[in-house]
Amino acid sequence: MATVATAGKTRNLTAPVIIEKVQAGIEESLTYYSKHPEEIGSRLLELDREWDIERAIEAEAAGSVLIGFVLGATVSKKWFLLPAFAGAMMLLHAIRGEYPLLPVFRRLGFRTANEIAQERYALKALRGDFDAVDSTRAEDHADKAFDAAAPSASNTSFAPTPV
Amino acid sequence: MGLPRFVKEPNPTDTRVQESTCAEVNEHIAQSTRAAVAKVAESPAAIERRLLQLEREWDIERALQTNFGALTIASVALGTMAAAPWFLLTGIAAAFMGEHALKGWCPPVPIFRRLGFRTMREINQERYALKALRGDFKDTRNAAPHRLLKAAKTTETAVAPI
Known about the structure:
The structure holds 2 protein chains of 2 kinds.
Chain A: H1 16-35, H2 40-49, H3 53-74, H4 81-96, H5 102-107, H6 113-126, H7 131-134, H8 141-148
Helix pairs in contact in A: 1-6, 3-4
Chain B: H1 5-8, H2 16-19, H3 23-40, H4 44-56, H5 60-81, H6 87-103, H7 108-114, H8 120-134, H9 145-151
Helix pairs in contact in B: 3-8, 4-8, 5-6
């Protein structure tokens, strides 16, 4: 059975309006940080903390199942239908990407991990983290590329450049 | 107050699983990722193939969500059809999924990490290293926003329709 690719699994189910909004948001961020390159490091740390949509869904599903469990144990066994439904939806999301609350979360502004990564790596490129890769065709260029792509904000290859 | 620290201060989304994984396993994953980059670095065709493969790789969140969904359904089914104590598993699974969402740890994490499931962050380090080798980031220092957006785009193609 061919499964849906992980990258883009959630994004492909998003309304085009929202995708455009997310892209516009990243573009705005890039415009701002091209004028304030010294703040890129702290923005990268902020991006590490941003809740992506998978995390939001996991938290919400855990909450729904827990509520159904408590009500099922104390009020009526019928409440166990809620965890069963939530579990089925979680499974559906994991395998196919669909999720009943997906449109809600997307409209609330939760981005996918890859949309956050797009902003992260665009910012890293902006500050020149990938310069070392382009200039080398030496035997260690694979290592250089791997190090340049390190997502950590403590990566200090940044040297302020006049704008 | 009485709340655990991870509820009051959730760990950063992107690093929470690595923070909850033992150092040797993280190191092992980092080394094999580095080796995977080196393996295809010399061949542009191999880089293309690997990039497409990486889009399909199941990250640890996807594996954990599958596990949680299946466990929840199974526990409710067993609680209804076999014996009521099975319902306890529903509560336990939900509590751990909640802990995972906030802290980045739940019982399957050490197992899945040892099985080699990577976080999206680790997969992306490989993808962006390959993109850099391919030249996607040539002359992008201080480039215009639309050029940066295009260079950093996360999928090679639109994902196949469902």
